[in-house]
Request: fold
Amino acid sequence: MKLKPLADRVIIKLVEAEEKTKSGIILTGAAKEKPEVAEVIAVGPGGVVDGKEITMTVKVGDKVITSKYSGTEVKVDGEEYTIVSQNYILAVVE
Reply:
């Protein structure tokens, strides 16, 4: 099954949390923080949303930071994704 976002929606997949700190300490499952960075999997076409013209500024493959607890989590073919509006994307990680 393939997900195709509509309007200003973006499908993202959270990037796994680091297993090790920069200093080399290995983290247990409980010590890992919730990942903050996600990869863009699919982007909607944009268009007119709530009377405003929306131009999509992110693209597939971008690494982004989103608002915490934003979007709708879905599971497709055993993979977990989050669908968010583009306005919940705070930054692109370069």
